[in-house]
Design goal:
4 helices; 79 residues
Length: 79
């Protein structure tokens, strides 16, 4: 189980390093108010879908899937 956790953590760190988080993207675009809220909502939904598909590719289930998805979405959104 520790090996799985290490692999998942390194994968999430690599993924986060390759792409800007939603928060970084909204700051770069200088979004505020409703535009920022709308952008963050869409970006978070996209991140959730992406992380769910990554978990499915890795054939994760149960607590491992939940943990992976939570960390992945958190990294992707910057929250």
């Amino acid at each position: 189980m520790k090996t799985v956790a290490i692999i998942l953590a390194s994968f999430c760190l690599t993924t986060a390093a390759l792409a800007d988080s939603c928060a970084d993207q909204s700051a770069a675009k200088k979004l505020a108010g409703a535009a920022k809220t709308s952008f963050m909502t869409k970006c978070t939904k996209d991140a959730q879908a992406s992380c769910d598909s990554q978990a499915a590719e890795k054939k994760l289930a149960g607590a491992a899937k939940t943990s992976f998805t939570k960390k992945c979405v958190s990294d992707a959104t910057g929250m």
